[in-house]
Prior knowledge:
- By secondary structure, the protein is α/β, with parallel strands linked by helices.
- 48% of the residues lie in helices and 9% in strands.
- The protein has helices at 3-21, 37-40, 58-66, 81-88, 110-119, 122-138, 140-154, 180-204, 212-215, 243-255, and strands spanning 30-35, 70-73, 98-102, 159-163, 207-209.
- Strands 2-1-3-4-5 form a five-stranded parallel beta sheet, sandwiched between helices.
- The chain is globular, with a radius of gyration of 22 Å.
Amino acid sequence: xxxxxxxxxxxxxxxxxxxxxxxxxxxxxxxxxxxxxxxxxxxxxxxxxxxxxxxxxxxxxxxxxxxxxxxxxxxxxxxxxxxxxxxxxxxxxxxxxxxxxxxxxxxxxxxxxxxxxxxxxxxxxxxxxxxxxxxxxxxxxxxxxxxxxxxxxxxxxxxxxxxxxxxxxxxxxxxxxxxxxxxxxxxxxxxxxxxxxxxxxxxxxxxxxxxxxxxxxxxxxxxxxxxxxxxxxxxxxxxxxxxxxxxxxxxxxxxxxxx
Length: 259
């Protein structure tokens, strides 16, 4: 009886089977979410703290599904590029190897533009959007370059995913709190912003993820919206993604670019 060789073969085969047949497991990831309200989760339920962070944000949902080694949730409602530079990047772990960010909307005057379009004429809305577009084209690129360079300097080994903003409004809906002229103007501003963000993210060597496809047909006023319309309570939810927007819009856009 040649038990020794047989046993050795069985043991070796078992080890190989375990090694080859074991389910694949992603390498350990230290993940940090930077940015503004579209990354902190404004618009969804469960917002807390001065930064209005929610567990329904795409960042928190991704962390819950993927169990990263560490998760820094630094995104904060109202953040501009200057805020990311002054308050978020200093806290960013230099060992982060996955970073997500939405930024630039507040620099371009998202909130004042929406307020003007809600309360003023079509002409005033279009003029406000055009002023924002001028800023987006002429000033924002430098702001984004500085911000992206600072992220790269602080966490040089990180994969950085820069996400866009969606078009806010559905233009097929016959009834909405804003006229068709206003809706098209605001959506055009979102497109201009996405173009600049894509360009500067690419120049920085970052991954750009455009969420407009995921949100197509689900803008505010659509029959199945991924974005809130005008919201009185709480007011900050206005024109931000709802839970479906984070779950079915931002989360898949980020997940597809995270590795």
